[in-house]
Amino acid sequence: MSESFYVRAGGEKTFNDLVSHFYALVAVNPILRPMYPENDLHGAGRRLQMFLEQYWGGPTTYSDERGHPRLRMRHAPFHISRIEHDAWLICMKDAVNGLEIGDDLKAELWEYLEAAAAAMINAAE
């Protein structure tokens, strides 16, 4: 059995680095920041990290604590048009590019993130 992406990419440290970098950008992004409750960036970051770690073969903490991910349902209350989608991808691309992992792993991660972001669009601009 081959190693999971989670292991090949460096495990918890890599996903913590990704999410920390991403939410540092969200915190100052005029489009994304208003979508989060004032005191919940940390909680949102923790949930994203748990989800990504589980998706990529790491611990199942996300499902243990929150049940099935149901990404579209969980994002349904938020207005996500192409504008929010693009802002999210700009922040996430910067975070992915900042990871100290191989370009092949970055490409694999990015391909998933682009597809997941597109699936969250639920509103017209």
TrEMBL record:
InterPro entries noted in UniProt: GlbO/GLB3-like (IPR044203), Globin-like_sf (IPR009050), Globin/Proto (IPR012292), Hemoglobin_trunc (IPR001486)
A Pfam family it matches: Bac_globin
Keyword Chaperone: no
SUPFAM superfamilies, per database record: Globin-like (SSF46458)
Coiled coil residues, start to end: none
Domain of life: Bacteria
CDD domains listed in its UniProt record: TrHb2_Mt-trHbO-like_O
Record GO terms (molecular function): heme binding; metal ion binding; oxygen binding; oxygen carrier activity
Keywords: Heme, Iron, Metal-binding, Transport
Family: Belongs to the truncated hemoglobin family. Group II subfamily.
Descriptive protein name: Hemoglobin
